[in-house]
Amino acid sequence: MIELRSVSRHFVMGDQQVRALDEVDLRIESGEYLSIMGPSGSGKSTLLNIIGLLDRPTSGEYLLDGRDTISLSDDELALMRGRKIGFVFQSFHLVPRMTAFENIELPMVLAGEPAAQRRRRVTELLDSLSLADRAHHRPNELSGGQRQRVAIARAMVMKPTVLLADEPTGNLDHASGAEVLNAIESLNAAGITLLVVTHDIEVGDRARRRIRMRDGRIVEDREKEAVSG
Amino acid sequence: MSFRDLLRLSAQSALRARLRSLMLLLAMSIGVASVVVLTSLGEAARRYVTGEFQALGARLIIVIPGRSETGGVAPGLLSGETPRDLTLGDAQAVLRITEVERVAPLVVGSAPVSVGALEREAPVLGANSDFLEIYAFELQRGRFLPEGELAADRAVCVIGANIARELFPARDALGANLRIGDRRFRVIGVLGDEGRTIGLDSQELVIVPVGAAQALFNTESLFRLLIQTRSREALPRAQQAVVAAIRERHQGEEDVTVITQDALLSTFDRIFTALTLTLAGIASISLVVAGVLIMNVMLVSVSQRTAEVGLLKAIGATRRQITALFLTEAVLLSIAGALAGLAVGFAANWAVRGLYPALPLHAPFWAIGLALATALVSGVLFGWTPARGAAQLDPVAALAGRK
Asked: Is A86 helix (H, G, I), strand (E, B) or coil?
């Protein structure tokens, strides 16, 4: 349900043209668990941004759930993002002046959902991510692992079909990182398509399908072999 | 996004950035407060002056020798003719007009006034009994000038309260003699402690009959001729008749200036309204400056919250929503500043009213409306560009902390 055909993304830096993505073809089915790895500058973040409708390809086609996205306006992209896609970032990107509750409900506020609905959904998510007692704390009163779980809750609040994680454990210690990965993996087990960009092989190896990138191209695309025994 | 949520988010953002919001509030409130206070001052001045002139009465005509165009050229300067004197004869002719009820010819000069060894210079006013009817001075003791022929030269005088205090420190002035120049006059009345009335400080005056003043200053000409008509309605006819009568006596020359309350009032009203509007305009400049400060502060805010804008876009905010968030914050702060400014302005007015009761400051309604409207417009106008800038940030760059 994610289909990229011959997608390129060029940037102009000074007087040079940089090819962040070079004629990429990629097809991802609903419910897959993918990791995207590669050295810096390989284009993995750019690929994630394009899939997440945060960025537009310079050329090529991108169909999301069968719909062509190239012809959409900025506002239409924004609305589609809000409904279908959840983001989790390395640096969490929580709004510092809002509580955990307010951060999580923000996408619903933007979508115009009434307060009662918001309260129900946010409470549900806080419970499922073991954050119920942290609901009214601000980010600076939360640990790294808790912040990322708040971010995951926010990403999931509109019930998207795709969860995109860009180095989700990058700012976390090993234990918190494991917690976070377990959380997003259980979401995947419940049917959400999960894409994780990472440079950490341990993290990348957890995915069922692994993609390696270099210089804007996909150089490897492997399914994990079934483990016997 | 519901309107309530929009307000809530904007208010939350404004409250969180305390120093920034406080600066905005301060700038706007100073601007609004100065509009309020300055327009109140202008309004108070206008009311004071027109009130003073209204006290003169709607039945009053003032005749001044010499024709002055409002261009301010001195009579006689261009035409080469000197104006004829306004005389008691003119006053008597005017008195014969049916619409005229009474006249008060005035002669003004300055002379040394002495009682024994005590002496001081004082303004001397030659008038008649009708002058009291027209000008309504307050008499503390005794009575005013006696009725009689206009040309009568009686050696009596009415003195002001300060003159009485200074020249008769130990005793009652009434009935005593004093010297004006080298003539002796008997004091028959003392004016009350009323104070100024359009150029005549009644406490400093020495009032004598017109005839006596003309002898004192050796002149036939009148300083002014005050005329009271029988009724308000009769005034326009009376005015025409007065001008005609004097013109006839002055060989067909209309060399006097005639002032009525209506003309005066409307002139002063126009002048002071213009003054007040000018003050309002000047004060409004500070509101524009406040607007520029709003833009500045909002630009800083946007640049500090670039990552937040990127995040909002990532979770589905449209450009319009982002513009709305920042713009609403600017407008909320402008309105809050305007209200604070109104409070400060009202407080300042109240303080001045308490300290200087003679200057009752009240903010005119139109000024309040002007201040609020300008504050609102400033907030929208100057908050627009930063808000648009935020809306147009590229989400990927914004999230990375770049513009």
From this structure: strand
Q: Is the pTM of this model over 0.80?
A: no
**Chain A residues with CB inside 8 Å of B5's CB?**
109
Rounded Cα gap, residues B140 and B145, in angstroms: 14
Between positions 8 and 37 of B, the ones with CB within 8 A of A are 9, 12-13, 16
Output the pLDDT for position B76: 47
The ranges assigned to domains in chain A are: 33-47+74-223
Cβ of A154 under 8 Å from any chain B Cβ?
A: yes
For residues B213 and B288, membership in a common domain is answered with no
Q: Hey, what are B273's tokens?
A: 């309204």
Whether residue B61 lies inside any domain: the answer is no
Mean pLDDT of chain B: 85
CB nearest to A78's CB, from B2, B5, B318 = B318
pLDDT band at A188 (very low <50, low <70, confident <90, very high): very high
Using the 3D structure, point to which of B196, B220, B254 is the last residue of a domain. Answer: B254
B345 and B387 inside one domain: yes
Share of chain B above pLDDT 70, in %: 93
Whether B22 is covered by a domain: the verdict is yes
Structural domain count of chain B = 2
Q: What is the architecture of the domain spanning A33-47+74-223?
A: 3-Layer(aba) Sandwich (3.40)
Q: Please tell me whether residues B193 and B236 are part of one structural domain.
A: yes
- Do the domain assignments include residue B63? no
Q: Are strands B100-115 and B177-180 parallel, antiparallel or unpaired?
A: antiparallel
Using the Cβ of B320 and the Cβ atoms of chain A, whether some distance falls under 8 Å is answered with: yes
User: B225, B254, B283: which is the final residue of a domain?
Assistant: B254
pLDDT in tens, B314-355: 999 999 999 999 999 989 988 899 999 999 999 999 998 888
Q: Does A18 touch chain B (CB under 8 A)?
A: no
Average pLDDT over residues A8-15: 87
Do A64 and A99 meet the contact criterion of CB atoms below 8 Å apart? no
pLDDT, tens digit, 9 for 90 and up, residues B92-123? 888 888 888 889 999 999 999 999 888 999 99
